[in-house]
Design a protein that fits this description.
The structure holds two protein chains of two kinds. Chain A is an alpha+beta fold. Chain A contains 19 helices and 22 strands. In chain A, the strands form five sheets. Chain A has a six-stranded mixed sheet. In chain A, helix 1 runs antiparallel to helix 2. In chain B, helix 2 packs parallel to helix 3. Chain B has a five-stranded parallel sheet, sandwiched between helices. Chain B has a single domain, classed as Response regulator (Rossmann fold). Chain B is built from five helices and five strands, in the order E-H-E-H-E-H-E-H-E-H. In chain B, strand 1, helix 1 and strand 2 form a beta-alpha-beta unit. Chain B is of the alpha/beta class. The two termini of chain B are about 15 Å apart. The chains are: A alpha+beta, B alpha/beta. At the A-B interface, helix 6 of A face helix 4, strand 5 and helix 5 of B.
Chain lengths: ~625, ~120
Amino acid sequence: MDMQKYRGMFLSETQEHLRSMARLVVTLEKNPTDREGIDSLFRAAHSIKGMAASMGYEQTAQLAHHLEDLMDGFRKGGAVSAAAIDRLLAGVDLLEGLLEDVAAEQPEREVGAFLAAAVAAAEKEPVPLVPAPTAMPATPLPGRGWPLQVSVELATDAAAPAARALLLLRELGRLGTLQDSIPSEEELRQGGAVRCLEAWLLTEESPGRIQEALAAMAEVERVSLAVDRRREPPRTPRREEGGRTVRVRTELLDRFINLTGELITNRYMLQTAFRETRWTEAGEALEQLRRLIADLHHHVLQVRMMPLESITGRLPRLVRDLCRKSGKNVELRVDGEEVELDRTILEELADPLVHLVRNAVDHGIEARGAISVRAWREKDLVLLEVADDGRGMDPVAIRRKALEKGIITSAQARAMLDRDILLLVCRPGFSTAAEITEISGRGVGMDVVKTAVENLGGSLDIQSEPGRGTRFLLKLPLSVAIIQVLLVECAGHTVGIPVTRVLRTLDVAREDVRSSGRQMVISFEEEMVPLLSLRKMIQLPARPSSGGSLPVVVAEGRRRKVGLVVDRLVGQREVFVKSLAFPLDRLPGLHGATVLGDGSVIFIIDPQSLLEPRPGAPVFRPRGENS
Amino acid sequence: MGLRILIADDALFMRNMLREIFVKAGFQVVGEAANGVEAIERYHELRPDLVTMDIVMPLKSGIEALQQITREDPDARVVMCSALGQEALVIEAVHAGAKDFIVKPFMEERVLDVVRRVTKSQG
């Protein structure tokens, strides 16, 4: 059998184990008798051993075997010795090295020396003895028929959806023994916006019959059935990043097949409707197509989604190592690791996150302190916060420094708010390695962090006060490829602005425009917002002055709101963004391009980076001409 | 083989509209009731295949009428008619044994869809 085709899978799965191993070791260092941790480490080493041996990677298998033995000893002893922590970490490092060799298709490095040293060390040290607890016996559920997990999705426009869900529960009760549901019957009786109903059923009816009965009910958009997973032994959720293989839940694959089937039916509906020129039916079929595509998008996105854990997993180890080196005492707290993001975003975010945490340890925290990494969902965004309780940043010092470096003019220095001043540390060249610790300390690589976040369509914000810690807040989209944009027209060109950047669109009457110095402003939510001409920003000829109101897009600028004056607001669209190739990718403010339904190509602009002139950078002109 | 339907609604307008929808679809409207008391009486008298019951009606509400009808005939096919924003009442009606519900403004297709489903799946 050709094992080479399994190499990618071996790599991704082993990498996943290694990440969790590193984290488990760090946890065990704090809590050496954590039974579950010891067991998990044992299992991880055991799995790697088995896979490596099947692949013929002898060195890897030997090392994994050794680690497995080591953990088995601790399983019997009930605790991990302090001396073993370093050995385990070194073993994990060596395994990582071996994986690199495998990935590069090189011969594996030797592990003999490591094994010999480890054995010698182990002999010196007695293993403490604690009786091991007995395993829990698995208890099967009583009942009759087979267990099914039923998921029902209601139509988006379903009226009184809670009542509809109650009717569904009643129907399920006729079809079998209803064991549980989310939401429960009591919850449904409280009313509210229910979109999905999950129910667990013991039934003797065939799944086909159940599917049919439920699908026949009003306002049911989709029914899917799965064997009730709760009866199987619990498995740890496992995902992986990178690599070329993805593990996908089979229910998801089933959904794809169902959706494909529905799309095929839909195609016939459309064909028939068009052939027979029945436009009402064509309209209905198109509406159905819209729903099917939205569903497909939703589910494909799920395949691409991975928990944040895949990149925060290495942080405990990082902080531990940094503490060792610097002699600081830092407590790391990670919350919201289960929050999911598109894998592309996670890949791009991995290094910036390490950077932020490293900076926090190196420059934020003095001798001891805490770092908190926290993620949570807010509507269509994921917010990721890296906060420390260290010395904080001093806007006065940063302002002075930026002036000295010529990054801002003295007029700008006076006009800028402290929040904007803090963001100056993200300017390229603000800080160099030689001067990091003294004043700002945060400049190293912060431009890289900010660029990475903005390239993903996200934004970065810094909050800090001297002596009161620093908080970096990253706002990230869930997915990169398909986004909602607001289309606007400017001198005959249509451009798109991601709606995540848009606060509001307004029709401003001429008399509501005031001037403040040389700047035209409007009042928006009790704030004076400067008006900027989008034509001017993208270097199109100025608009001939005319009467009537001004269409304005209020966008989040550099910490401050700005009103972009456009010629016309066209509307909102869901678009597939294609990234731009050289040389277009060099233009600041250009987020990508997309093709509209009529075949025209439009550019997606990012007001935030458009507002940030970079000296010497080329300028975006939608015409693509240099004249 | 027209399905025999009783329409209970205090608004003549709604009764006429529903009647038109049903007649056009080949169903037989065997009676009308303008309040909850009448609805119960007509039900006993006519034994229709299906009742459309407005929730808010004078003398006896649609839910009270529904309760009384299903107490005596648990298989009665009663479909509640509600306005938007009456979710709590709809939930109460479903709990009391309504087989389904339709929400105003009535769309012909939805009304017929619900009626057909109820008579098919529970017939």
